[in-house]
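Annotators were shown the component list below and the corresponding predicted structure, then asked to write short factual statements about the assembly.
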Amino acid sequence: EAGVAQSPRYKIIEKRQSVAFWCNPISGHATLYWYQQILGQGPKLLIQFQNNGVVDDSQLPKDRFSAERLKGVDSTLKIQPAKLEDSAVYLCASSFTLGQPQHFGDGTRLSIL
Amino acid sequence: KNEVEQSPQNLTAQEGEFITINCSYSVGISALHWLQQHPGGGIVSLFMLSSGKKKHGRLIATINIQEKHSSLHITASHPRDSAVYICAGYYGGATNKLIFGTGTLLAVQP
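Structure shown to annotators:
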C-alpha cells in the first residue's frame, strides 16, 4: 500500500514570503492531520480533518496559517506571511478514521531566512 | 506537567546491547503509540497498544495500564536502530488527539 505522500521535501524561503505544502493521504483514510515539529521537540498538531471537515484547529495560528481538504482526499497547508519561528518540519499523517493508528509522511523541512 | 513523559532523553549503547526506553503518561490516555524518526526523515509507526505486550522482530513494547507506564525494548541493538523514538498517547473523545513525548535520541555504536 502506498504511504502518505508529501511535497516538497525541503523548502527555503525568506521571512514574509508565502509557502504551501501538499499532502496525499493513504487511499481510503478519512482522517488527515497536519503537525509542526520544531527541532528538538515532539510534533504539535496544527489541524485535523475528518473527510473535508475540520475536527480540531485549536492550535493553528489562523492569522497566518490556513489549510484545506476540499474534496476530502489531499490537503494543502499554507503559511502567509512566514516568520522566522515557522522554521520546522511539517508532517502530514492519515488514519482510516478517528482513533485508528496514524501513518506519517516524510515531512517537509521548512527553513526561513 | 507534560501528559506524556519519556526517559532517557539521550541514550548511547554499544552494538548488541539490550535497550529500554520508558514512557509515563497521564490519566485520560487510552492507548499508546511508539514511533521511530530517523534524522531528516519522516515518522514510522512501530506499535500501537492499549494493553499487554507486542513484539515485532527485535522490538518489544509493553504497557502497564495500572501504573500508566510503557516501555520499548530493543534486543541485540544495531547501529541502524539509531534514531529518535517517540512515545505518543491517544486521548479518547471526539478528536482522539495524539499527544507526543519529546522523544529519546538513541545512538548505537558499532
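Statements collected:
1. The radius of gyration of chain B is 13 Å.
2. Residues 40 and 64 of chain B are 32 Å apart (CA to CA).
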